[in-house]
């Protein structure tokens, strides 16, 4: 006859093995999900556009962000972190990336949304490079799973341009 301790231990080992198997299965089936998010962003308005006393350009915009990220959600998804970045080139840097807005989405039902907002974070260029500047708006996402690896991807929306003059 086995002692109680031995049986408890065996049961525990079995439970842990099953749990490990479930986790592996969860992240494995997850890798078959090929998401197809859709994103549209309009710059509704340039609220103001100035050169600061320190010489840096700053712009404030009103954005209309419309996205359907529901396909990122599987039963293994804990939450999705999204951020919208303005990306542009300057003589000094190949890539300038400025986060304008972000959100954490915890429910699939909330992953389809339209919001009108001014940029949550300041759009400042370390220099005065923004007049007439072409930029991309890129929606980046990080999918944080309940178990397994984090996935990151993005959608690039090219072809935006800042006004040629301060206002
Ligand atoms: C925001 O974008 C959505 C989808 O493109 C559109 O239906 C809606 O009318 C826009 N809202 C504004 C205020 O322009
Ligand atoms: C903006 O997007 C276009 C098209 O995807 C790409 O060729 C270009 O390199 C992007 N610019 C930046 C600064 O990422």
Automatic annotation (TrEMBL):
Protein's recorded name: Uncharacterized protein
Source organism: Trifolium pratense (Red clover)
Lineage: Eukaryota, Viridiplantae, Streptophyta, Embryophyta, Tracheophyta
């Amino acid at each position: 006859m086995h002692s109680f301790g031995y049986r408890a231990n065996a049961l525990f080992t079995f439970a842990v093995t099953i749990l490990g198997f479930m986790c592996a299965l969860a992240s494995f089936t997850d890798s078959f999900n090929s998401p197809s998010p859709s994103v549209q962003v309009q710059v509704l308005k340039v609220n103001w556009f100035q050169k600061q006393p320190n010489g840096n350009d700053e712009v404030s915009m009103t954005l209309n962000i419309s996205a359907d990220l529901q396909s990122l959600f599987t039963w293994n998804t804990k939450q999705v972190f999204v951020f919208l970045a303005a990306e542009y080139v300057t003589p000094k840097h190949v890539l300038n990336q400025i986060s304008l807005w972000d959100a954490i989405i915890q429910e699939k039902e909330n992953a389809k949304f339209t919001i009108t907002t001014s940029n949550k974070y300041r759009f400042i260029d370390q220099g005065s490079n923004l007049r007439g500047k072409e930029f991309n708006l890129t929606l980046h996402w990080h999918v944080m799973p309940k178990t397994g690896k984090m996935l990151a991807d993005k959608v690039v929306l090219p072809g935006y341009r800042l006004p040629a003059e301060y206002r």
